[in-house]
Structure formats: C-alpha cells, structure tokens
C-alpha cells in the first residue's frame, strides 16, 4: 500500500482497525517521521476515540477508552532491556488492542507477551510518499 499524504496514512490505520476485535498486538516499525503515529491515530479514531493524546514518547503509554480498549506505546527512547521492565504484559489483553511504535526495540519480548494475533506494520519512505506493508504474523 502506498500513501501520498498523512490523510491516506491515517485512513490506512482506520482500515486496519475495522478488522480488530481485541487481543491484537500491532507492531509499528519504520524510520523517524515515516507515519507511525499517524497510523496509530487512525486506529484510535476508528475504534471510537474522539481525542488524540499524541505519540506517548515521554509518557510511554496512552490509554484510550475505546471498544475494544486501545493501549498506545512508544518505545523510541528505550533500549531492549528497558522495554522488558515496563510491564507491558498488563496491556496485552484479550479485551484490548496494544499498538507499539518502535516495536523493533524489543521484538522477541513483544511477541512473547501477545494475547492474540500479531500484526506487523512497516512504514517507510518511497519516492512519492510512504510505503505501508501490513503482515499478519499469527
């Protein structure tokens, strides 16, 4: 999938969210500025959030009262060993969706805590915008 604007990236997140029922772990990966937060905002909107708290770079986790519940995590500032000390297990639940930006910081740990299906979303720059690749890992 190619995105030529932030709005198209947001809509790609919305389309993915239409398939979410709870228990999913969404791993967002890509370079700085590739659209991870915009994609996550699309998921939040589609799940019913009318507020956006932004990327939780410093807070680490933002919770949204959506259906299913949404937990948005940003691992940008952390090293792999620090990620495992966050206790993200409590957010990997059957009744929620866990969206993780910079998931490549601790891929083995994140896969280990998944409550259900794992979906990896790779975002990257291409000539006319962004490339968004969605892969269901389990």
Describe the structure.
By secondary structure, this protein is α/β, with parallel strands linked by helices. The chain has 4 helices and 7 strands, in the order βαβαββαβαββ. It has helices at residues 6-17, 36-47, 80-83, 107-113, and strands spanning 2-3, 25-29, 61-64, 69-74, 96-101, 118-126, 129-136. The longest helix has 12 residues, at 6-17. It is globular, with a radius of gyration of 14 Å.
Strands ordered across the widest β-sheet: 1-7-6-2-5-4-3
Instruction: Give the rounded overall mean pLDDT.
Output: 92
List how many beta strands DSSP finds.
7
Helix segment tally = 4
Q: What separation lies between the terminal Cα atoms? A: 20 Å
- The fraction of residues assigned to DSSP E strands is 25-35%
Following the backbone from N to C, one meets helices and strands in this order, namely EHEHEEHEHEE
- Taking pLDDT < 50 over at least 5 consecutive residues as the criterion, the unreliable ranges are none
Radius of gyration: 14 Å
What about the largest sheet?
7 strands, mixed
**Overall geometric form:** globular
Compile the SSE list and pairings:
Blueprint: E1 2-3, H1 6-17, E2 25-29, H2 36-47, E3 61-64, E4 69-74, H3 80-83, E5 96-101, H4 107-113, E6 118-126, E7 129-136
Parallel strand pairs: 2-5, 2-6, 4-5
Antiparallel strand pairs: 1-7, 3-4, 6-7
Helix pairs in contact: 1-2
